[in-house]
Amino acid sequence: MSLVTVTGLGVDAGAQRILTGVDLTLAPGEIVTVVGPNGSGKTTLLRAILGAIQPSTGRVERQAGLRIGYVPQVLHIDQTLPLTVRRFLDLPVRRGAAAVREALVDAGADGLEKRQMTDLSGGQFRRVLLARALLEKPELLILDEPTTGLDQPGSAAFYRQIEAVRATLGCAVLMVSHELHVVMSASDRVICLNGHVCCHGTPEVVASAPEYRALFGTGTQGALALYRHDHDHGHDHGHDHDHSHGHDHAPREDTAV
Ligand SMILES: Nc1ncnc2c1ncn2[C@@H]1O[C@H](COP(=O)(O)OP(=O)(O)OP(=O)(O)O)[C@@H](O)[C@H]1O
């Protein structure tokens, strides 16, 4: 049973067609990444799946009662407002110390409870946003360019954290990213979007697809091989997680998106 089934999705904004004929399914526990150029409709697709915008054509079906955790692309915190991480995670719903602590541990942000939100590094801030999404105990975690503002090692570490979250909680993950070669190593499936689905499949299949190469060139292939090599040989960042977890969920490249 799919968590989400998108069929023939079209989205218009005024006279402009943003998405056309998008089909996709999300299975429990899989990590799916949407890549595509600026303005290709990635955020619009996430918002349609969240139910924040209505399709102009087609359907978005969510499993009944599906719990979704959402990490937005940007979140502005008033720099003059004193707000600890603990308090931030207790808004707008009071969660209690144990739940907050557990979410921070799962997000790789243990020990930050008493820090001011405005004092956090970019990577810490992203992990706190992730912790906030985890408080929902999501079956599906949706992240819109979650590593905006992080450097490449910071981004790679964040994507490994996402894999750790999936291993711990077993949730499916749908995310948008521009960092193609980094994110591909952490994805079971990749969807290349440009107003419509250009190509989809395993990271290797998408990286070598002519449609993908037409949009992004061929430069990521070497980096992809490098990252996957690294990925196969473990990480040195202290997280103990099973790389094979969830890959059973990964559909082959010849299945529907
Ligand atoms: N509410 C809206 N009204 C009018 N146009 C919109 C609206 N929302 C999005 N668009 C347009 O739809 C297109 C796709 O936007 P979207 O934000 O989904 O793209 P994206 O792939 O996420 O882009 P980026 O990589 O730059 O974040 C853009 O041309 C955008 O200007």
Termini distance? 14 Å
Number of domains: 2
* Ligand types: adenosine-5'-triphosphate
Q: Order the strands across the largest sheet as they lie in space.
A: 5-6-7-3-8-9
Major sheet description: 6 strands, mixed
Radius of gyration: 18 Å
The CATH H-level superfamily of the largest domain is P-loop containing nucleotide triphosphate hydrolases
What is the number of strand segments?
A: 9
Question: Topology, pairings included?
Answer:
Blueprint: E1 4-13, E2 16-26, E3 31-35, H1 42-50, E4 57-62, E5 68-71, H2 85-89, H3 97-106, H4 122-134, E6 140-144, H5 152-169, E7 172-176, H6 180-184, E8 189-193, E9 197-201, H7 203-207, H8 210-216, H9 220-232
Parallel strand pairs: 3-7, 3-8, 5-6, 6-7
Antiparallel strand pairs: 1-2, 1-4, 8-9
Helix pairs in contact: 3-4
Bound molecules: adenosine-5'-triphosphate (ATP).
Describe it for me?
The chain is of the alpha/beta class. The chain has 2 domains: 4-67 and 138-249, 3-Layer(aba) Sandwich (Rossmann fold); 76-136, no CATH class. It is 33% helix and 22% strand. The chain contains 9 helices and 9 strands. It has helices spanning 42-50, 85-89, 97-106, 122-134, 152-169, 180-184, 203-207, 210-216, 220-232, and strands spanning 4-13, 16-26, 31-35, 57-62, 68-71, 140-144, 172-176, 189-193, 197-201. The protein has a 6-stranded mixed beta sheet, with helices on both faces. Strands 2-1-4 form a 3-stranded antiparallel beta sheet, with helices on one face. The two termini are 14 Å apart. The model is unreliable at 220-257 (pLDDT under 50). The structure holds adenosine-5'-triphosphate. Residues 13-14, 16, 18, 36, 38-44 line the site of adenosine-5'-triphosphate. Keywords: ATP-binding, Cell membrane, Ion transport, Membrane, Nucleotide-binding, Translocase, Transport, Zinc, Zinc transport. Residues 1-219 form the ABC transporter domain. GO terms for molecular function: ATP binding; ATP hydrolysis activity. Residues 230-257 are annotated as: Disordered. This is Metal ABC transporter ATP-binding protein.
